[in-house]
């Protein structure tokens, strides 16, 4: 997994998780949904990079 893509995935996951938690805490459903989407994007990016790594070896 390229270091840059891995870092980007982890950043998206962390930001999404924080945004989702904040949205839930303040009752902002839109913010919570956007956070969840950002986290999912990070999860997908990480999975893609892991798949690419598996085929390199």
TrEMBL record:
Q: Where is the composition biased (Basic and acidic residues)?
A: 1-11, 36-57
Residue span of region Disordered: 1-57
| Top-level taxon of origin | Bacteria
Cited Pfam families: CsbD (PF05532)
CsbD-like domain residues = 5-57
- Cross-referenced SUPFAM superfamilies: Hypothetical protein YjbJ
Q: Which family does it belong to?
A: Belongs to the UPF0337 (CsbD) family.
Report the protein name in the record: CsbD family protein
């Amino acid at each position: 997994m390229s270091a840059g893509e891995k870092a980007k995935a982890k950043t998206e996951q962390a930001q999404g998780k924080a945004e989702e938690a904040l949205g839930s805490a303040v009752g902002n459903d839109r913010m919570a949904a956007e956070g969840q989407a950002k986290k999912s994007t990070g999860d997908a990016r990480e999975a893609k990079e892991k798949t690419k790594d598996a085929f390199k070896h």
